[in-house]
Specification:
Helices cover 34% and strands 21% of the residues. The chain contains 18 helices and 22 strands.
Length: 615
């Protein structure tokens, strides 16, 4: 029998390596930007077409390459950063494996122009699918310009699995944000299809965070700094009241390399445990400087995971530093945040036990059920006529919750027809408990309904119907509102615009990262809502639903809208409003459970009540 094991051809080996290094356009962007930084550039430009599918171009003014280096950089395991195995434990630069350029060239058409500052003429190299096409002298600015065209052109199966342009663009923006945040001393720009997404001047860390995330972040940041024999820690955390429902604004950097670390994330979030609820996530941008010999960055293909020699000590340092900064912020809220850091001004003025956790405010006048008898109250909700009448079968199932055998007794003749018979005992005896629950006497005992969960269920099914039939009615805003989003959220909103309009929003693009809201869903009413905040919460809630439950796009939108526009606990309801809520709840397909899967309705039987009184 002949030998059957053979060495793979370089072209095949490179494509296999490409599968580890380059999963999507964002992967190539990351590798090219890191190479530009390692080259010592202080200005880096990223230019894209079709969210990187057609073109990824990175231009830097770094050191450039010689003729030989320009050719060698496309060979596998060719690197300027490692000479011996021990060097792997002293890495402070970004790319060091020597796989990136070879992997990218294996699945795209590459053109590179590069020149060292001391040279008068540069070099151009063209490669297609790992096949060398051309190399010649060329006049080019000092530094390097790399064009990656038609990514995955020779691996169509991989290309077919790429997502839509807005989705791929969001991944690219994530990588761009991480790299530019870690290097505020470098000027960056990002263009896609001729539109400028970012233009970031060289600055300090706080200014870079504000430029990336938005001007309103200037007031949200608290400085953190700690120097120990194990690590040096610096950066910023977010004020508790600005925490969000998603983890998107959480950044760890170890020796300026972005990493993901659930263990250290727990150290930070634990410091917030008395200030935030479990479903809220704080902002943080934290930099750990540590001896490279005490970490291993080579444990993951994308180098986003790290192993530490003194993991528990680092956890303790991280937790105590964040907690101390939070305490000082609460004690001394007048810190000058216009300074790049404000560490010297963080002086304790009160005892730690005087720290007051932030409170959550709500609008006590918001009510979704039409005009009240009281002239001083205005409600956002105005009912629509496209909702189905109360489902009497669901009303019957209510009485089956405690004792199914009592359904017939509970629905005995109390009026002219079956609907009146079943609705009458509830309609006549409703009361609100602590402005949170609606209570009614039923034949078998007491029924209680969670008013917020009930209204979320009602709105969720209504919005889902609008998304399916594309008939969500809109009411025009008297004064259209503009909402400016982060570039990532703007790309997300653009991808959702058709579905958002189906809900009843009238929205259109209006310049860079900005939308104009000209109308909101009729289901939400008119005056009470701040359209801008509602839209921002809609996008944030959509991201949270997709992250936590992996829902499809329309379901996530419907859930987000329902949660953000429902009546909340703490709002007083009148008899007519409670009756309307219950009637619409039992018109739902699933009235017994909230959109979170928790009970909406609870009953307490007479037997259980009697036991409490020893009867």
């Amino acid at each position: 029998m002949s030998d059957i094991i053979q060495l793979l051809p370089d072209s095949v080996a490179n494509q296999i390596a490409a599968g580890e290094v380059v999963q999507r356009p964002a992967s190539a962007v990351k590798e090219l930007l890191e190479n530009a930084i390692d080259a010592g550039a202080n200005k880096v430009q990223l230019i894209l077409k079709d969210a990187g599918k057609a073109l990824i171009q990175v231009i830097d003014n770094g050191c450039g390459m010689s003729v030989t280096d320009a050719r060698m950089c496309f060979e596998r395991h060719a690197t300027s950063k490692v000479r011996k195995a021990a060097d792997l434990f002293a890495i402070r630069t970004m790319g060091f494996r020597g796989e990136a350029m070879a992997s990218i060239a294996a699945i795209s058409q590459v053109e590179m122009k590069t020149r060292r500052h001391e040279d008068e003429i540069g070099t151009m190299i063209q490669i297609e699918g790992a096949n060398f096409i051309n190399q010649e002298p060329v006049a080019t600015p000092a530094g390097t310009s790399i064009c990656i065209k038609n990514l995955f052109y020779n691996t169509p199966a991989r290309r077919n699995f790429l997502r839509s342009n807005p989705a791929e663009m969001r991944h690219i923006i994530d990588e761009f944000q991480r790299i530019s945040m870690a290097n505020p001393h470098i000027a960056f720009s990002l263009h896609n299809d001729g539109l400028e997404i970012y233009r970031l001047p060289a600055s300090g860390l706080k200014q870079r965070i504000v430029h990336l995330l938005g001007n309103n972040y200037n007031e949200r940041l608290i400085p953190v700094e700690e120097e120990t024999s194990i690590i040096n820690l610096k950066g910023f955390i977010g004020k508790p009241q600005f925490a969000k429902k998603t983890r998107g604004e959480q950044f760890f950097f170890v020796n300026n390399r972005f990493i993901k670390d659930g263990y250290l994330n727990h150290a930070v979030t634990k410091a917030y445990e008395e200030l935030l609820t479990e479903e809220n996530f704080p902002l943080y941008v934290l930099f750990i400087d540590i001896d490279p010999a005490k970490i291993d960055v080579n444990v993951h293909p994308t180098k986003t995971e790290i192993k530490y020699l003194e993991e528990k000590s680092i956890y303790a340092i991280m937790h105590s530093a964040v907690k101390r900064s939070l305490g000082r912020f609460n004690i001394s809220p007048s810190i000058d945040f216009d300074q790049e850091t404000g560490f010297s001004s963080m002086i304790s003025l009160k005892k730690p036990e005087d720290i007051v956790p932030p409170t959550i405010n709500f609008n006590p006048d918001f009510n979704p059920f039409g005009e009240s008898k009281s002239p001083s109250r205005q409600y956002a909700y105005q009912g629509t006529n496209d909702y189905q009448p109360a489902n009497t079968k669901n009303w019957g199932s209510l009485y089956e919750i405690v004792k199914p055998q009592e359904v017939e007794q509970a629905t005995m003749v109390l009026g002219k027809d079956a609907e009146e018979e079943q609705f009458a005992p509830v309609q006549k005896q409703l009361m609100q408990v602590h402005n949170r629950y609606i209570m009614s006497q039923i034949k078998s005992g007491i029924m209680m309904i969670d008013q917020q969960a009930a209204h979320e269920r009602i709105l969720y099914e209504r919005f889902l119907l609008h998304l399916e039939d594309r008939k969500g009615a809109s009411q025009q805003s008297l004064f259209p509102q503009t909402v400016t989003l982060s570039p990532n959220d703007f790309e997300l909103a653009k991808s959702l615009l058709d579905d958002i309009k189906s809900l009843g929003f009238e929205v259109r693009e209006f310049g860079k990262n900005t939308l104009v809201i000209e109308g909101i869903p009729v289901d939400l009413g008119s005056n009470t809502f701040n359209e801008t905040q509602l839209f921002e919460h809609l996008i944030e809630g959509f991201k949270n639903s997709q992250q936590e439950l992996k829902l499809d796009k329309r379901d996530a939108l419907a859930r987000s809208m329902a949660r953000n526009s429902s009546i909340k606990s703490g709002v007083s309801l009148e008899q007519e409003e409670m009756n309307t809520l219950i009637e619409q709840l039992f018109a739902c397909k699933t009235p017994n459970f909230s959109i979170s899967g928790k009970p909406v309705i609870q009953t307490i039987g007479l037997t259980e009540i009697d036991k409490k009184f020893d009867r």
